[in-house]
């Protein structure tokens, strides 16, 4: 079997992502061989082709932390040819070959059978949307209800943010969407945002206050950095922040005051190493009661051959929503 893949290689001090042909040498170890229908573009994929991006240790590699498709061969009774599946996270696309290829082989314990979602819808959700769902699940587990007050979503125009706005609005929450994209207000309102505000803190040069006015009951934050510090100081008594990202920086310049004077909780969200049973259960919910209502608005589709342009937009912080990468028949 010979097939096409986008391979990232180090060259001239940079990283070049280009189409190559390969076979068994492109497939990893594992029980499930998948004909990839779609991958998607995530912030981590952009880091994978950035020199010193910190996510890939060894090149060459086929990036793509998400892949959805159809099982073509299985060495376990758990999966059979024809099953529609998604695999994402774990080592995919960072320390073993990922989804930017026509075929992939993955361990059965990383594979999720799709229920109620097409391979395209599942790719539209992808790691970013799954992380949004996990963030919402963590807040609900904390006891958050729509009666508690408005919920803030940061990086709202991005992948995690857009899906978080959609899911929270389905659940009946009042949503304040924070974005640096001045043209995104109508789109975010369509997804369910009740108020659209700029990036936080509003004045990035102001001296950070350990505690400010309580503005939100909770937050889904994929920005991190000073923004997260500001949000923690603005959450109401007993509220929580589900934190998953670092587009605004990895440092967290805060104090203990929000935690010890307001009982605020900082809930860490990790989709990458999430145990498979929890992962499968959340995907089942995403195909049923938690299904995002606006996937067609949230996700654009591009052929895999345009992946370099899509990842460049993510790196520039100007990406909107999610981009599904069409793999089957698109090389
Ligand atoms: N913990 C996990 O398991 C997990 C999983 C998935 C993603 N993540 C992380 O979550 C973050 C978002 O991922 P994504 O796939 O949603 O990326 P994305 O689609 O590129 O969205 C990121 C958004 O962050 C905002 N942003 C970008 N640069 C910024 C800056 N300098 N300051 C403040 N805001 C900025 C922008 O939103 P606006 O245009 O609305 O301002 C951008 O659209 C990344 O850090 C990613 O690594 C973590």
TrEMBL record:
EC class (word): oxidoreductase
Q: From which residue to which does any coiled coil extend?
A: none
Extract the InterPro entries matched here. Answer: Acrylyl-CoA_reductase_AcuI, ADH-like_C, ADH-like_N, ER, GroES-like_sf, NAD(P)-bd_dom_sf, Zn-ADH-like_protein
The segment(s) forming the Enoyl reductase (ER) domain are 13-325
- A Pfam family the protein falls into: ADH_zinc_N
Superkingdom of this entry's organism?
Bacteria
MF GO annotations: acryloyl-CoA reductase (NADH) activity
> Which UniProt keywords are given for this protein, alphabetically ordered?
Oxidoreductase
Enzyme Commission code(s) on record: 1.3.1.95
Q: Which PANTHER family match?
A: ACRYLYL-COA REDUCTASE ACUI-RELATED, SHORT-CHAIN DEHYDROGENASE/REDUCTASE
Q: What is this protein called?
A: Acryloyl-CoA reductase
- Organism expressing this protein natively: Nocardia thailandica
């Amino acid at each position: 079997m010979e097939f096409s893949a986008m391979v990232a290689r180090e060259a001239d001090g940079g990283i070049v992502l280009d189409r190559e042909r390969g076979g068994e040498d492109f497939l990893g170890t594992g029980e499930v061989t998948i004909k990839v229908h779609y991958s998607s573009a995530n912030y981590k994929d952009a880091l994978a082709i950035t020199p010193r991006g910190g996510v890939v240790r060894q090149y060459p590699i086929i990036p793509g932390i998400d892949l959805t498709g159809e099982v073509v061969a299985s060495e376990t009774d758990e999966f059979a040819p024809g099953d529609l599946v998604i695999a994402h996270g774990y080592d995919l696309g960072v320390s073993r070959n990922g989804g930017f290829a026509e075929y992939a082989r993955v361990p059965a314990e990383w594979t999720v059978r799709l229920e109620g979602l097409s391979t395209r819808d599942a790719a539209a959700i992808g790691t970013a949307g799954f992380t949004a769902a996990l963030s919402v699940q963590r807040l609900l587990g904390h006891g958050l209800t729509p009666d508690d007050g408005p919920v803030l979503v940061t990086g709202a125009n991005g992948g995690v943010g857009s899906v978080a706005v959609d899911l929270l609005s389905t659940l009946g929450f009042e949503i304040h969407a924070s974005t640096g994209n001045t043209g995104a207000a109508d789109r975010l309102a369509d997804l369910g945002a009740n108020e659209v505000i700029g990036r936080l803190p509003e004045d990035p040069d102001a001296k950070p206050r350990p505690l400010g006015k309580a503005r939100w009951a909770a937050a889904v934050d994929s920005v991190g950095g000073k923004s997260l510090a500001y949000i923690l100081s603005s959450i109401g008594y007993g509220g929580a922040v589900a934190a998953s990202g670092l587009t605004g920086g990895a440092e967290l310049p805060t104090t203990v005051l929000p935690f010890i004077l307001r009982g605020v909780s900082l809930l860490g969200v990790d989709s990458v190493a999430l145990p498979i049973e929890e992962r499968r259960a959340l995907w089942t919910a995403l195909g049923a009661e938690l299904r995002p209502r606006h996937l067609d608005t949230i996700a654009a589709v591009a052929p895999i051959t345009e992946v370099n342009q899509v990842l460049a937009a993510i790196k520039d912080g100007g990406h909107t929503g999610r981009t599904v990468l069409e793999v089957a028949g698109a090389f």
